[in-house]
Specification:
- The structure is a single chain.
- The chain has about 450 residues and is mainly alpha-helical.
- About 50% of the residues lie in helices and about 5% in strands.
- The chain contains 18 helices and 10 strands.
- It has a 4-stranded antiparallel β-sheet. The chain has a two-stranded antiparallel ribbon with strand order 1-2.
- Strand 7 and strand 8 form a beta hairpin.
- Helix 2 packs parallel to helix 5, helix 8 packs antiparallel against helix 10 and helix 17 packs across helix 18.
- The structure holds alpha-D-glucopyranose.
- Alpha-D-glucopyranose binds next to helix 2.
């Protein structure tokens, strides 16, 4: 492998998508700042330019809501497409939205504490303390908001109110939740009209990426309808959760949160403060109750519906993310590694598929229902190392880099053939390639 060449290609993508204070995930398809994208991007950037990596995360502050929420997207003012996206969300309907900045009214996986610490690790101790102090208030109010607004029954698990919050938009558990409750009437009506060609013209994503690599029209419309419902309630979690359309205790999100909580503890200790007691208690609870998402019969973790309080028994890549949380037992970690190594499930030629081969949803090119994604590989590699599965981590890292070298800096990849899919020049693929090369 020509590591130097790969590094240079990845660096060039990051440069191309750099908008000064933040990096867009891709110039055409995603022309704004995304929350967990910026976290992954800064993790890569810290290897190239520490100051720029910090700026990437500092830029997230401008979007933070007065109640602490960090929005999934901060809309750019100048980029093409801004009007339609920010107009759809109309975040200013909420009294908590920041002044003068348009954002979504929902969040995304809490990768921020991890990104802050990764940058911190590359700094000298005085600088590290000052960096942590700069980011601490943002992190503290975000984590407090998560528990205050999104854990109404005080169960220790955060409830997501839209599939986009999971970051794994059309992952099998979310899509099955959607079909369980039925598509909205108007979506069924539009479906009957057989006007897919027309809808594809209106959808901005399918004008950049082949339609069979994105969500089908009926699901995309249903997600849009769910968004409008949230907007009707001005993104007020209490009102939304009293009669929710989507409400899921998402496995991937909560696994990432556990790791983020660990990193937040480290940050507060380093700067010599202590976290509020209630937050500490909530954080402990999350670690304990994650185990409630384990299903002994099928030997895997699932997300849980907040409405029915039942596990959503749909296998997906999320089942492996408790490895990243670091809070599960070594025994459980071993069970997950067996799933990872099973050629009938996740051990494809170009791992890790976002849905196992055995899933009825599996489609090798379709978004989060089969393709391999580099951010997920990065999270699992990190989790494997934490549990001492060093050789498995090394194999996965090597495969991941080979995949990107062979197919390019794409958004996702066919897990069977390694063919590229989604948008080219995708920032987190570039950034995490850099990070894997340097680690
Ligand atoms: C897609 C992904 C989401 C990501 C966004 C921007 O919507 O599903 O996880 O944050 O693109 O890259």
């Amino acid at each position: 492998m020509d590591e130097q060449k790969l590094l240079e290609t990845a660096q060039a993508v990051l440069k191309q998508n750099d908008r000064g204070k933040w990096t867009v995930p891709s110039g055409n398809l995603y022309p704004h700042q995304w929350l967990w994208d910026s976290c992954f991007i800064s993790i890569g950037l810290r290897n190239l330019d520490l100051d720029r990596a910090k700026i990437e995360l500092l830029s997230l502050k401008r979007g933070q809501w007065r109640n602490g929420m960090l929005p999934a997207i901060i809309f750019s003012k100048t980029e093409q497409g801004k009007e339609i996206d920010s107009f759809t969300w109309r975040s200013s309907l909420s009294p908590f939205a920041p002044d003068g900045v348009d954002t979504t009214g929902i969040t995304q996986p809490p990768m921020l504490a991890e990104a802050v610490v990764r940058i911190g690790q590359s700094l000298k101790s005085t600088e590290r303390r000052s960096w942590y102090s700069q980011m601490y208030p943002t992190l503290l109010s975000f984590h407090e908001w998560l528990y205050r607004d999104r854990d109404p029954r005080e169960e220790g698990l955060i409830v997501l109110i839209h599939p986009y919050e999971s970051g794994l938009d059309d992952s099998p558990p979310w899509v099955s939740e959607l079909h369980r409750q039925g598509l909205p009437l108007w979506v069924r009506f539009v479906n009957k009209l057989h006007i897919n060609w027309l809808i594809h013209r209106v959808r901005t994503d399918t004008s950049h990426v082949p339609w069979d690599q994105r969500m089908p029209n009926d699901e995309a419309m249903a997600y849009w309808a769910a968004l409008l419902k949230l907007r009707q309630h001005a993104y007020n979690s209490e009102a939304i959760l009293s009669r929710p359309m989507f409400a899921v205790q998402d496995l991937a999100f909560n696994s990432i949160l556990i790791r983020a909580n660990t990193q937040l503890r480290l940050i507060s200790k380093t700067i010599g403060t202590s976290l509020p007691r209630t937050l500490e208690a909530n954080m402990d609870k999350t670690e304990k109750v994650l185990e409630e998402l384990w299903d002994e019969a099928s030997g895997q973790y699932y997300s849980r519906s907040f409405v029915s309080q039942k596990l959503i028994e749909e296998a997906s890549i999320s089942t492996l993310l408790p490895l990243y949380s670091g809070s599960i037992s070594k025994e459980r970690a071993k069970q997950l590694v067996l799933l990872l190594k099973n050629p009938k499930l996740y051990a494809t030629d170009w791992p890790i598929p976002s849905a196992p081969l055995s899933s009825t949803h599996f489609a090798p090119f379709r978004y989060w229902q089969g393709p391999s994604w580099i951010n997920i590989n990065w999270l699992i590699i990190d989790g494997l190392k934490r549990y001492g599965f060093d050789s498995e981590a090394e194999v996965l890292k090597k495969k991941t880099l080979e995949l990107v070298e062979k197919s390019g800096i794409y958004e996702y990849f066919n897990p069977l053939t390694g063919e590229p899919a989604g948008t080219p020049n995708f920032s987190w693929t570039a950034a995490l390639t850099v990070d894997l090369l340097k680690s």
